[in-house]
């Protein structure tokens, strides 16, 4: 599709005082611009750690992780912030901010310490607000926003950075269906429109499958499967990784799973022992 | 102007009247400076003194042989070195005092001594608390301690002599304009000596005027510009370490007497507390003042 | 824009008050003449060599304390932080008390000892805060500051317990803070020294904004968080150490002024820091003028006046927050 933005080569991470099994075990993966990749897996499978390796906030203990062709940890934060916009699950600002100012923070990586925001900064903010459908909220205090609105504002902030990559870390975990869908739609569109490299860490396997170009299924630190949803989302893989019986179905040509009830309930196709 | 002329008579009055109030109380009823009645069955033979002024006084009236404990700050006469120290005089260590097995403990009158006094009184040990801030205090203390230690003849005679000396000084003060003297206790914040301080009394009796004679307290925190405004003729330093370091500092050199280095220095413990050496002290100040005036 | 003009006007007015007001009873005319060098020697000396450098020094120290307070509040993400939470006031006090009680000679003995004590405390707190790894954790920093401060205070108490009463009183009075040591040379030394950390802190005005979002979001928006924390901590500490060594421990300025500015101006550090500097300067010059003059010839410790002003202001601020 485009140039390689993120590349992990046998990346491994062990916690210094942690258990013997590594948090991330020899993962090799590359993400190109214009594609949306979703990293899924149960808790503790290493998905967030893998993202942190790619964002350069954690140094791999084995192998290497590159961002934009350089070791992720070698980047200066300011330079990396000009290239990658990150939206995490939850964020609390310590002081009251208006939406416009919050999005303006996205321009900070491009501003010198004493430089005032210029016309192009204001324009970038306006575009981001428009694109994320929060322009009508620009003068509101962020404390008055709903969860979904605040999340979209943070996506706008990431967009205002004019990045080449977008990373969302469980960004929809606390949202209701409508806001979750909106966020996935927005992310997918932004990736396509701006040819960004998109990385999503999420619990919601089914949604990830419908929006992402590729899935990375993590299990105990290793990448159990990497590929298109159709290739990767099978009952065997899901049952192994999530340790729960599932039935597979389809929506829009994309595999979807249904978790089966164990006790006193239905029996579905493909329930293995 | 009027204030200046009033301070000496005020001092004189308190000094000369210091004994009268006691006589009016009558024998057998000795009250110390905290209003506490001092009762002793017989004259004390083991005295612990908790202030340098009291220690010196006890020796002066001839009771030094009965002093068995003193503070670490007691320094005069030289004989005190042979006497064991019981530590600090303020809020003292009661155990150390008890270790000397006293029958009279002489305190400096201060609220911080109340716990120790109460403790000793509970144990049946007599205590007496006296101030030693100025000459009048000193004379009162001399009279009381003289009575308590059965050295009344000696103390009466010394007190009489001291009062006579003080009167003589007052009478022989120069009638010309008196030089104004600045006395600084501390530099940051600036603390000046006021009229009720013993040092101020000495200086006034020696024939000078305290630049802060209008301050009715032993000391006062002021700003340097107030000191500049007073425009003292000279600065009196009562210290063993000579001219202090702060005299070199730029903000102090705005004070004319400091800038022009009009300092007179006197050393010795007779300047830091009232005692029977006070006439010596006054004489020495008088001498340096005359020397300065003749420059 | 009008707010800035107002604040600058207040600053100028405060400095004028600092020069015109004082225990020495001088008319405005006399002060004006003295500024130009005319009039009798004593008046000129009082105005030009005492009041003017003192007002300017109080201004610069007040501004520095306010900026330090703002930076530290952002650093530890705690609105109750003030310049003295990091233990250095204990170290400075210990140095000064030791110099006073042990009668260390030299005219700069006390300020230098205070500075030395403060620097030692800074190093100790920093070292303690690194114990949990190479990360300056804000909570560990706060705790270390409290511990080091308490330790220094107890040592100070021990020294004072074995010292003669006058020395103890002198040391305590010094600690309460004041500008009696102000002179043109003190002003010059402090200003040159303070300019560096002030500039360093101001250059971090954007990362300071980002820090309020949390350390991780700040990093993702370009802040080098570890370096930022180190730089801020060192700059703030050095600045406070200098202020304490020149004028003792003056409270409330660093705590209250940043909050007052936030209420009036907002939270962005690009304007918060300079505005806090100006307001802190105004507050301290006026407080010093009051301390010197209200009960003339008695001179109050300036820390008492800042507390008397600061406490009701603080109450007002808290009530405003509560709404």
Tell me what you see in this structure.
The complex is a heterotrimer of chains A (273), B (295) and C (323). Chain A is α/β, with parallel strands linked by helices. Chain A is built from nine helices and twelve strands. Chain A folds into two domains: 1-83 and 164-273, Rossmann fold (3-Layer(aba) Sandwich), CATH 3.40.50; 92-162, no CATH class. Chain A starts with a strand and ends in a 14-residue tail after the last strand. Chain B is α/β, with parallel strands linked by helices. Chain B folds into two domains: 2-167, Nitrogenase molybdenum iron protein domain (Rossmann fold, 3-Layer(aba) Sandwich), CATH 3.40.50; 180-293, Rossmann fold. Helices cover 39% and strands 15% of the residues of chain B. In chain B, α5 (114-122) links the parallel β5 (104-108) and β6 (126-130). Chain C is mainly alpha-helical and 323 residues long. Chain C contains 14 helices and no strands. The radius of gyration of chain C is 20 Å and the shape is globular. The model of chain C has no long low-confidence stretch (mean pLDDT 90). Classes of the chains: A alpha/beta (273), B alpha/beta (295), C mainly alpha (323). The B-C interface holds B 73, 90, 185-191, 212, 215, 220-226, 228-229, 231, 241, 245-246, 248-251, 254, 256 and C 22-25, 41-42, 45-46, 49-51, 53, 103, 105-107, 109-110, 164-166, 170, 173-174, 178, 180-186, 292, 296-301.
């Amino acid at each position: 599709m485009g140039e390689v933005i993120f590349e992990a080569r046998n990346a491994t991470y062990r916690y210094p005082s942690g258990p013997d099994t590594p948090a991330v075990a020899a993962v090799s993966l590359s993400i190109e611009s214009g594609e949306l990749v979703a990293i899924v897996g149960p808790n503790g499978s290493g998905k967030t750690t893998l993202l942190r390796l790619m964002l350069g906030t954690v140094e791999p203990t084995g192998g290497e992780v590159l961002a934009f062709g350089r070791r992720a940890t070698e980047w200066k934060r300011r330079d990396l912030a000009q290239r990658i916009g990150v939206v995490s699950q939850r964020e609390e600002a310590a002081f009251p901010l208006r939406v416009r100012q919050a999005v303006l923070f996205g321009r900070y990586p491009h501003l010198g310490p004493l430089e005032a925001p210029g016309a192009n900064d204001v324009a970038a903010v306006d575009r981001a607000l428009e694109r994320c459908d929060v322009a009508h909220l620009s003068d509101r205090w962020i404390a008055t926003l709903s969860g979904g609105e605040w999340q979209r504002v943070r996506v706008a902030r990431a967009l205002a950075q004019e990045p080449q990559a977008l990373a969302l870390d469980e960004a929809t975990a606390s949202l209701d269906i409508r806001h979750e869908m909106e966020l996935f739609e927005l992310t997918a569109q932004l990736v396509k429109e701006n040819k960004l490299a998109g990385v999503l860490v999420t619990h919601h396997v089914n949604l990830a499958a419908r929006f992402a170009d590729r899935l990375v299924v993590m299990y105990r630190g290793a990448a159990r499967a990497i590929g298109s949803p159709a290739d990767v989302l099978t009952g065997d893989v899901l049952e192994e990784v999530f340790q729960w019986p599932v039935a597979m179905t389809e929506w829009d040509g994309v595999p979807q799973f249904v978790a089966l009830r164990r006790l006193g309930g239905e029996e579905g196709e493909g329930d293995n022992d | 102007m009027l204030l200046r002329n009033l301070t000496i008579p005020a001092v004189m009055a308190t000094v000369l009247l210091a004994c009268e109030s006691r006589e009016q109380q009558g024998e057998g009823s000795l009250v110390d400076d905290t209003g506490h009645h001092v009762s002793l069955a017989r004259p004390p033979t083991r005295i612990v003194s908790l202030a340098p002024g009291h220690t010196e006084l006890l020796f002066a009236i001839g009771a030094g042989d009965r002093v068995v404990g003193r503070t670490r700050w007691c320094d005069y006469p030289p004989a005190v070195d042979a006497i064991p120290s019981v530590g600090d005089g303020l809020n003292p260590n009661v155990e150390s005092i008890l270790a000397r097995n006293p029958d009279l403990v002489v305190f400096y009158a201060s609220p911080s001594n109340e716990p120790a006094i109460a403790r000793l009184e509970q144990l049946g040990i007599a205590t007496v608390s006296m101030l030693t801030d100025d000459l009048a205090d000193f004379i009162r203390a001399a009279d009381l301690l003289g009575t308590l230690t059965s050295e009344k003849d000696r103390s009466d005679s010394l007190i009489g002599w001291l009062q006579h000396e003080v009167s003589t000084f007052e009478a022989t003060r120069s009638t010309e304009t008196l030089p104004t003297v600045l006395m600084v206790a501390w530099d940051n914040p600036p603390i000046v000596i006021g009229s009720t301080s013993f040092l101020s009394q000495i200086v006034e009796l020696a024939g000078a005027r305290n630049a802060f004679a209008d301050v009715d307290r032993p000391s006062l925190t002021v700003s340097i510009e107030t000191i500049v405004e007073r425009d003292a003729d000279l600065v009196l330093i009562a210290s063993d370490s000579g001219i202090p370091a702060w005299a070199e500092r730029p903000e102090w050199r705005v004070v004319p007497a400091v800038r022009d280095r009009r300092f007179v220095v006197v050393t010795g413990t007779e300047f830091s507390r009232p005692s029977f050496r006070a006439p010596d002290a006054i004489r020495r100040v008088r001498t340096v003042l005359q020397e300065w005036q003749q420059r | 824009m009008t707010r800035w003009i107002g604040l600058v006007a207040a600053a100028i007015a405060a400095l004028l008050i600092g020069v015109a007001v004082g225990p020495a009873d001088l008319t405005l005319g006399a002060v004006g003449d003295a500024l130009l060098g005319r009039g009798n020697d004593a008046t000129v000396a009082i105005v030009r060599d005492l009041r003017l450098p003192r007002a300017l020094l109080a201004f610069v120290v007040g501004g520095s304390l306010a900026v330090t307070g703002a930076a530290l509040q952002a650093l530890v993400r705690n609105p109750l932080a003030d310049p003295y939470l990091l233990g250095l006031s204990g170290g400075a006090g210990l140095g000064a008390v030791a110099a006073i009680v042990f009668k260390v000679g030299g005219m700069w003995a006390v300020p230098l000892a205070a500075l030395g004590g403060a620097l030692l405390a800074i190093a100790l707190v920093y070292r303690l805060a690194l114990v949990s790894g190479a990360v300056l954790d804000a909570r560990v920093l706060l705790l270390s500051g409290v511990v080091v401060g308490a330790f220094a205070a107890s040592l100070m108490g021990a020294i004072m317990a074995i010292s003669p009463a006058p020395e103890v009183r002198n040391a305590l009075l010094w600690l309460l803070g004041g500008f009696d040591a102000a002179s043109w040379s003190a002003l010059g030394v402090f200003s040159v020294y303070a300019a560096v950390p002030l500039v360093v802190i101001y250059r971090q005005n954007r990362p300071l904004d980002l820090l309020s979002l949390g350390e991780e979001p700040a990093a993702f928006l370009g802040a080098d968080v570890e370096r930022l924390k180190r730089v801020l901590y060192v700059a703030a500490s050095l600045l406070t150490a200098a202020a304490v060594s020149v004028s003792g421990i003056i409270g409330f300025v660093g705590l209250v002024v940043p909050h007052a500015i936030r209420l009036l101006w907002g939270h962005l550090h690009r304007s918060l820091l300079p505005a806090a500097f100006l307001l802190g300067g105004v507050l301290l010059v006026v407080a010093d003028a009051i301390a010197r003059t209200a009960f003339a010839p008695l001179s109050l410790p300036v820390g008492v006046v800042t507390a008397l002003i600061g406490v009701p202001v603080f109450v007002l601020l808290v009530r405003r927050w509560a709404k």
